[in-house]
Amino acid sequence: MDKRRRWRLAAWLLVAGVVVSLSAGLFHAESEDANDHVASFTAYAASGIWTLVHLGQFAGMALLISGLFVLLPALIIRPGLLAVTARFGALAAATALALYGALQAVDGVALKHAADAWAAAAEPEKAMRFATAEGIRWLEWGMRSYQSFMLGTALVLFGIVIAATRQVSRVIGYLMVLSGVAYLVQGWIIGAEGFAAANRWPTLIGIVATVAWSVWLLVSALRMKAPTRSTSRA
Q1: Which member of 11, 49, 87, 223 has the greatest number of CB atoms within 10 A?
Q2: Angle, to 10 degrees, between the axis of helix 170-193 and the axis of helix 200-222?
Q3: How confident is the model over 166-214, as pLDDT tens digits?
Q4: What is the per-residue burial (b if ≥16 Cβ within 10 Å, else e) of 209-228?
Q5: Residue of 155, 181, 183 whose CA lies nearest to 88
Q6: Residues of 113-134 as b/e, b for ≥16 C-beta within 10 angstroms?
């Protein structure tokens, strides 16, 4: 596969990952305050598509990480510090995907069953069922926190390489770094406070920056010219 086709395939995968993730998120059941566990578990128990939504979010993340891996060989021209940086970025991305799969198993399956059991339990049993669901929720906080750390690290490292190689606009790399930093901040807030109001701005910045760099990267890849081939004369 030539470099232009690799850039285009990577860009399409990245954009597809963003679109699938955001589309699935539109159907995610929410309460006004995600840290209000009574309201949140009530909303989760009432959702008939909870597990499907989280499967869609996992598919989106898998597409996004696949795009980074397809992009990796096109980024590096020669061995050196940038090559090492990109490989560490790929390692962080693979770890982020593994953590995200575990996260969606906790949130999309275990928490849903726990919320359903709490909602259906008789009054004497509700306190025990609620404690179980809340314990799973706290496990979700931990998984989401470390997944955000690893995804943020991957985006920062890939952004540095994209900006340094200058094969596309350096601003794309800067935006990727910005989105990575936003995920790092999210990871810290979620680990410390859960889904608190303080996480809204980092989440919004991360989404906007990710949409911006992924679309810009796709446009740049589509506009790349085919490499010229030199012809030998007899």
Answers
A1: 11
A2: 150
A3: 899 999 999 999 999 999 999 999 999 999 999 999 999 999 999 999 9
A4: bbbbbbbbbbebbeebeeee
A5: 155
A6: ebbbbbbeeeeeeeeebbebbb
